[in-house]
Design a protein that fits this description.
alpha/beta, elongated, 9 helices
């Protein structure tokens, strides 16, 4: 069967148109041979988001922005339609976020995937969020950088003012004087360094002794930690309290010791007794016969003597 020339021309034109349309959509990021789901989000501002902008999640491209229009009946709201490959299931609580894709301000869509076990359906409207311009977020950093540069300029100006030729000459003279001092005291410095080396060697050789001392201190600290210091302190406080009570009672004249301490009658009696005993002993030394009688021949008849 012979195909007419007109039919061939029509088929070629149709094929060219199909390839052209597919190529245009392919360049825009669309794939006409892949089915997709449409999702919607309502924004107050989109920061210059355009059709065919990338739609991704976790750095992976899932689709494109298929349409941007005003929300019906409300021109203060913007309705964004995205096309996502149907093989990707999106949780119901996923957020459609507009963010800055680069420093040039290009906008794209990031799907902040939720954790809902229920998946969104075709033509569902999801929650939205506008991240804002990256440059606006960098403005505080820019201001800080400018302030830092201004501060550095001020410091450099101070340094230039301070280090005038006279100051430079003084610094050079100081360095030269320091060099002369080091050269003149080289022997002493060497001797000091030798002494320091000797000390370090002694410390190294005494390392074992130092370790033993540290271990002993550790043992003492462990013994103190294990001792019931609180109990000892409580007992000491109790003993001091009891002693204080006893001293208070003595001062108030309570008890035998209190009466002895606070009443001098016993002292007076004892003093009188000691004096009487002293007089008795003195009289005994002077007149022993008055108290003691000795007779070799028996008892003397005192009446005849009289």
């Amino acid at each position: 069967m012979k195909i007419p020339k007109e039919v061939k021309i029509g088929l070629i034109i149709t094929l060219v148109l199909v390839v052209f349309i597919w190529g245009v959509n392919f360049l825009k990021g669309r794939n006409l041979f892949t089915t997709s789901n449409q999702y919607y989000a309502v924004f107050d501002a989109i920061g210059g988001l355009e059709k065919s902008a990338r739609v991704g999640a976790n750095g992976y491209t899932l689709g494109i922005v298929s349409d941007i229009t005003f929300f019906p009946g409300n021109y203060k709201k913007i309705l964004v339609e995205i096309s996502v490959d149907r093989q990707f299931k999106i949780p119901k609580n996923t957020i459609i976020e507009v963010y800055s894709a680069d420093f040039m301000g290009s906008k794209a869509i990031n799907l902040v995937l939720g954790n809902s076990p229920v998946f969104a359906k075709d033509d569902d409207t999801l929650a939205s969020r506008y991240e804002g311009d990256l440059l606006k977020k960098l403005m505080p950093l820019k201001d800080r950088a400018e302030n830092l540069i201004i501060s550095i300029d001020s410091v450099m100006a101070i340094i230039r003012t301070t280090f005038n030729p006279e100051t430079k000459r003084n610094v050079q003279r100081s360095i030269a004087a320091m060099d002369d001092l080091i050269l003149s005291q080289k022997t002493k410095i060497t001797l000091i360094l030798d002494h320091l080396e000797s000390i370090s060697n002694n410390l190294a050789s005494s390392n074992k002794s130092v370790t033993n001392i540290v271990n002993n201190l550790s043992s003492v600290s462990d013994s103190i930690a294990k001792a019931d210091l609180k109990k000892v302190i409580d007992q000491t406080n109790f003993a001091l309290s009891q002693s204080n009570d006893i001293l208070l009672k003595i001062n108030k004249g309570k008890g035998t010791i209190g009466k002895l301490v606070n009443n001098d009658s016993l002292y007076v009696v004892l003093e009188k007794t000691v004096k009487d005993l002293d007089n008795l002993l003195n009289d005994l030394n002077k007149n022993p016969k008055r108290y003691v009688h000795f007779s070799v021949f028996g008892k003397t008849d005192t009446k005849n003597k009289k």
